[in-house]
Amino acid sequence: MKTLIKNAQTILTMDDAGRELSNTSLLIENGVIAEIGPNDADADEIIDASGCLITPGLVNTHHHLYQSMTRAVPGGQDALLFGWLQTLYPIWARFGPEEIFVSAQIGLAELALSGCTLTSDHLYLYPNGARLDDTIAAAQEVGLRFHPTRGAMSIGQSDGGLPPDSLVEREADILDDCIRVIDAHHDAADGAMVRVGVAPCSPFSVSRDLMRDAALLARDKGVMLHTHLAENDEDIAYSLEKFGCRPGQYAEDLGWTGEDVWHAHCVKLDGSEIDLFARSGTGVAHCPCSNCRLGSGIAPVRRMRDAGVRVGLGVDGSASNDSGNLAAEARMAMLLQRVNSGADAMSAREALHIATRGGAEVLGRQDCGQIAPGKRADLAIWDVSGVESAGSWDKAALLLAGPSRVKHLFVEGRQIVRDGQLATIDLPRAIERQNALALALAD
Fold first, then answer.
1. Using CA atoms, how far apart are residues 411 and 187, in angstroms rounded to an integer?
2. What is the pLDDT of residues 165-187, one digit of tens each?
């Protein structure tokens, strides 16, 4: 299958040279970028990209897809992290396989329409027979490249934890199911559509033993590790009280640093923890909108990047963000660093780099995140001829004056969004089912 994308106004490659190409074309063949430049090759399909900007597909490094069914829940709208969780846990406990599947469909569709081609997901609760496989099935239908992580909670309220006992699992069962889903679904090859990670929910919902055993298991299986870390002041206080150290030290002691690890949030990392992450190659998923919504603070992304920490973006769950628009997340990341450190703290191009190549590197995907011959054909095509960009002198400054919804989206050379509409599933029908299920939960 060959697809020729012609006449692009600008291509932001995010390649090693940072090239920005004007009035040129792309040839996709068998899921890979074959050529960049003037091209009149025969192709099975030709896309006219006149008036458009092409970027690598955006990469989402942290999500809880199931939460798209619990947006704007009363009682959780104005709470800090721990209170917000205690409001939502009893609702999530009533989910089952259908709720997990449908909410993942909706979350993935929303990501696709915002330009995302590769997303992780952190699923850490499995009520009423739900499995990680339910989200993988949804991703295969929508067509996004997927990095699901087998999360877990093992310390319930009766043992001093936050989650209700009905949502926690036996630690032996957790490790057994990690092995099952890795063996069933993980693909380590270039171009893989599914890679599986291991992801105990957080230091305050699992034991020290499970954190250590999960790291050992993941490294034995050759998969990545993910969890929440240092999200807010409550998180820091819990770590100091329960473990006698800050979250960064706790992570290092249990084997949770290294190039195969990425942590979500990291809003409250101090200078020594930033240096630790830089030395060890540990990645960070920055979730600016969720951090604002829950009042957690502004992550020190400028300091992290200046120190050499790998940083990607995450929309986080739609119960704490209420949106899953990755382009909007990238703009928020840029704006918050400017609020913290001045108007020159982060450019639109740097924020877009974090949202594309930065995220791919955090997820260990050297085959994605840039537009170059031999890389996977994961492309977002943005119409910059519309009202959002009218009067813009720099059409490549997408996050300053550009659309937050794509015109076309390709994953592995397959068109997922065509003319602003999802091309792979019946989205109106999925929305109708999502709303019906959400209403039943509310009742």
1. 17
2. 999 999 999 999 999 999 999 99
